Automatic annotation (TrEMBL):
Top-level division of the source organism's lineage: Eukaryota
Record SMART domains: eIF2B_5, eIF5C
Gene Ontology molecular function terms on file: eukaryotic initiation factor eIF2 binding; GDP-dissociation inhibitor activity; GTP binding; translation initiation factor activity
The name this protein goes by in its record: Eukaryotic translation initiation factor 5
Family to which this protein belongs: Belongs to the eIF-2-beta/eIF-5 family.
Entry keyword annotation includes Protein biosynthesis: yes
Any single Pfam family the record assigns to this protein: W2
GO biological process entries: formation of cytoplasmic translation initiation complex
Keywords, sorted A to Z: GTP-binding, Initiation factor, Nucleotide-binding, Protein biosynthesis
Organism encoding this protein: Mycena indigotica
Length: 410
């Protein structure tokens, strides 16, 4: 019997609340000393919470003083003894409060991060909604299990499964802030795993010859013409931001924080990548729009015809500012305008641009795939939208084939 769905925060009665999970199901098996409670849909519940199912199961064991069994390969999760379903659902609410919900905004869109402080370790909830980092109750018995079985950095789509990530979305790793952007920009050249190396190799082989390659997309590429197109593009983005109500209350286009940010971006001084990342974030923060998705839309105007070499330098900044699906869609909208309007000669480079953003964990596979299969006139005219998506076909095909390979291996 299929489970229904409930709000992750069960104190929220809003039927349109976006964060939902399956109702936890239980099944009593065995008898006598061998009686046990099976949790048949624990994997689905855990995925909705972006936590490994072993965490929730072990939490039950800690609270009930019972032994647990976690077979992640076969998705079998068991608690010794007979336990009432309502009681387990109450305990699940406790787990959500202690290890999922942001302590600041009560949003469940968090990741667990383990931070080393001297010889000790702290577990932090990193909220992708409000940006706050809040600690968990370090005295709870589950903490020891989490430290011994740390969360795995999430990979994209189906590729997460082949690396043992039981709950896509669970990850570690720090964010870029004005204080640590310099460190993050350095990167770690020795951190590539086999999958990343494979992606890089295949990215180099992506076919740039699309059906659009022979079309007449010539444009005046003089510095004056490019500057004029970029200025018009920035103005269009700011206007779109105002029209969609993401401005901080200003009715004057020239004084809106987005227009100010766009103008500042157009005239940003030449800085080394580390300093540039910090300067841009500080400017957005100063204007109070560092967490707005339309800020990402305008930020794309910083790219030039050398976008492929610029993405790695700005990746730490984009990873900091692109924190939700809405941010990713805004980024893709900015790319549409960049290659479709400002620099049409970049159209054949779309697959490599998408690969670079995907490889740096800025864009998710599902968001790219959905974008590539749904033409929209939200950011450009419909014809330009079609052409940009058509140009992306080699990368979309690569994603599909990579998923097929994963399925075959399973």
């Amino acid at each position: 019997m299929a489970a229904g769905f409930v709000n992750i925060r069960r104190d929220v009665d809003d039927k349109f609340y976006r964060y939902r999970m399956p109702i936890l199901l239980t099944k009593i098996e065995g008898k006598g000393n061998g009686i046990k409670t099976v949790l048949p849909n624990m994997a689905d519940v855990a995925r909705a919470l972006s936590r490994p199912p072993s965490y929730t199961t072990k939490f039950f064991g800690c609270e009930l003083g019972a032994q647990t069994t976690c077979d992640e390969k076969n998705e079998k999760y068991i608690i010794n003894g007979a336990h009432n379903a309502d009681r387990l659902r109450e305990l699940l609410d406790g787990f959500i409060d202690k290890f999922v919900l942001c302590k600041s905004c009560k949003n469940p869109e968090t990741e667990l991060i383990i931070l080393k402080v001297g010889r000790s370790e702290d577990i932090i909830r990193d909220c992708k909604a409000c940006g706050e980092r809040t600690g968990v109750e370090m005295r709870h018995k589950l903490v020891t299990f989490i430290l011994k079985n740390p969360p795995i950095k999430a990979r994209k789509g189906k590729k997460a499964a082949q690396n043992g990530d039981a709950a896509a979305g669970v990850g570690g790793g720090g964010d870029v802030t004005p204080d640590n952007a310099e460190e993050a920009a350095d990167g770690n050249p020795d951190s590539d795993d086999e999958l990343t190396k494979k992606i890089k190799a295949e990215a180099a082989e992506l076919n740039e010859e699309t059906t659009l390659a022979n079309e007449d997309w010539s444009a005046d590429t003089s510095p004056e013409a490019v500057k004029a197109r970029m200025k018009a593009l920035e103005g269009g983005l700011a206007a779109a931001s105002l029209a969609n109500g993401d401005d901080e209350g200003s009715d004057d286009d020239g004084n809106s924080p987005y227009t100010q940010f766009g103008n500042w971006i157009m005239d940003v001084p030449e800085l080394d990548p580390k300093a540039l990342n910090v300067a841009i974030y500080k400017k957005a923060e100063e204007l109070g729009i560092e967490k707005k998705h339309k800020t990402v839309l305008i930020l794309v105007t910083i790219f030039t015809e050398d976008v492929l070499t610029e993405i790695p330098n700005l990746a730490p900044l984009f990873k900091k500012m692109v924190t939700s699906e809405k941010h990713q869609k805004a980024l893709l909208g900015g790319i549409e305008r960049l290659v479709g309007l400002a620099f049409p000669d970049l159209l054949p480079q779309v697959p490599k641009i998408l690969m670079a953003l995907y490889q740096d964990d800025i864009l998710d596979e599902e968001v790219i795939t959905n974008w590539g299969t749904h033409v929209s006139k939200k950011y450009t005219d419909k014809e330009t939208s079609k052409k940009v998506r058509k140009a992306s076909e080699p990368f979309l095909k690569w994603l599909e084939e990579a998923d097929d390979d994963d399925s075959d291996e399973d």
